[in-house]
Amino acid sequence: MRPHVELIHDDDYIWHAAELVSGEGRASERRLSVDEEDGSSSLRIDFHTDWGRGPGIHHADTEYYVLEGSMTYGGREIGKGGYVYAPQGVPTDAITFAEGTRILHYREYGDAGFDPVDGLNAPRWADAREDVIVIDSEAMNWDAVPNPGPMPGLFIKYLHVDPVTGFYTRLVFCQEGWTDHRLAHHPCYEEAYTTQGHMEYNFGTLDQGSYFFRPARVKHGHFTTMEGGMTMLLRSDGELFNWYTQNEWIRWGGEAVNYGPDGGRMRWSQSSHDLGKGSVRRSDRDLADLAASVRYQREQGAKDVDYVPNGVGSDKSMLAVAKALDAANLQGGHGGHDHQYGHEHGDHEHGDHEHVLRADWGADPGSLEHREERTDAGAHNRGQGRPWKPGEPIPAPIISTLPVRSRSRGRWDADGM
User: Fold this and answer.
1) What is the rounded distance in angstroms from the CA atom of residue 219 to the CA atom of residue 397?
2) What are the structural domains, with CATH classification, of the chain?
3) pTM summary value
């Protein structure tokens, strides 16, 4: 499984010698995120010399995207925006990169293995499917996203869509002023690398060179797009559905046994209300854009709630705790043995009359899971993406409080988390 990385700038990664099997030339890679279980990797690669390798078969579904410089595949040269998708087990043609080229390189469901072959007529693997895709994305037109969130201004270029799994890679452009005041979670993972522009959201600043890998079901949001808009290469391991949350809060704690000042009751996570009291706050521009997003939704007749910055107004987590205490008092409590059942403990098993306190927290998260969600091959990983179709139970979000984040870009003010 891959860790939750949000938000890191690629400047904060160290360089490694690029793992490009059977190639000739010199290159370095920054490992944006890696799945040590199946070999999946997302990499930024710089070529210090001309580099190339001949025809062969990749051990993973493999993608190349040119950020700067040029790539030649099968004799066709493509500059910035060039994209090649090489499916696992399918013979691919020779590929070269010019000195100074910078690319994004993805391997999915396999390692860096590469088997040289004599040509494209070499046999495919028995379970191979799809074909090689070669695209000059700079020559493509932007298409407006049919469901862009709460307001217009979102555009897309599809680079690859797996017809079986729904896995897709696309370029997304958010025009200046595109805003979403809601939090969302999805049934699939979502990762992105910013290629241009600037956006703000609860985990930090998305600017050129910033990256995130967000496992399925992790809440995120409160996006505001700054001057000039923002473009990113975005990938998901399945069809992306948006499930929204508002009026959010979180608070939990425990009894410290042998740590903390004086031990005792500890709060080891905070509500968004607490985090808004410090120096980290939304800018006036952000607040105005978020309010405009709410207004637009209401003008369209959608039911919505006001965006309220963290640390402002009543603390919803404390209100919820108070309601839970009220529920416990109304149900009589069971902390001691003051109940009037009129029996001796020796006359029965205590469980016969066990009185369980049940505060009403709304839907039980367990009722929102897929039936098989915790018994499949990904049962060990709550953040693994799983196929979902309309009409099925919608899984509850995962609370991710401390993702890996950047020294230079990852703010993590937890606004709304």
Assistant:
1) 6
2) 5-139 (2.60.120.10), 140-326+380-417 (2.60.120.10)
3) 0.88
Nearest-angstrom CA–CA distance, 125 and 357: 58
Q: How far is CA 25 from each of CA 103, 112, 218, 326, 382, rounded to the nearest angstrom?
A: 15, 16, 40, 69, 40
Cβ contact 263:229 at 8 Å: no
Secondary structure (H, E, C), the chain: CCCCEEEEEHHHCCCEECCCCCCECCEEEEEEEECCCCCCEEEEEEECCCEEECCEEECCEEEEEEEECCEEECCEEECCCEEEEECCCCEECCEEECCCCEEEEEEECCCCCEEECCCCCCCCCCCCCCCCEEEEHHHCCCEECCCCCCCCCEEEEEEEECCCCCCEEEEEEECCCCEEEEEEECCCCEEEEEEEEEEEECCEEEECCEEEEECCCECEEEEEEEEEEEEEEEEECCCCCCEEECCCCCCEEEEECCCCCCCEEEEEECCHHHHCCCCCCCCHHHHHHHHHHHHHHHHCCCCCCCCCCCCCCCCHHHHHHHHHHHHHHHCCCCCCCCCCCCCCHHHCCHHHHCCCCCCCCCCCHHHHCCCCCCCCCCCCCCCCCCCCCCCCCCCCCECCCCCECCCCCCCCCCCCC
Q: Report residue 26 as tokens.
A: 């010199």
Beta-carbon neighbour count of residue 341 at 10 Å? 11
Q: What is the pLDDT tens value at each position of the chain, 417 positions in all? A: 788 888 889 999 999 999 999 999 999 999 999 999 999 999 999 999 999 999 999 999 999 999 999 999 999 999 999 999 999 999 999 999 999 999 999 999 999 999 999 999 999 999 999 999 999 999 999 999 988 888 999 999 999 999 999 999 999 999 999 999 998 999 999 999 999 999 998 888 899 999 999 999 988 888 999 999 999 999 999 999 999 988 887 777 787 777 777 766 776 666 777 766 555 577 889 889 999 999 999 999 988 888 887 777 788 888 888 888 887 777 665 544 444 444 454 444 545 545 565 666 677 777 777 777 778 888 888 788 888 889 888 888 887 655 666 677 666 555 555
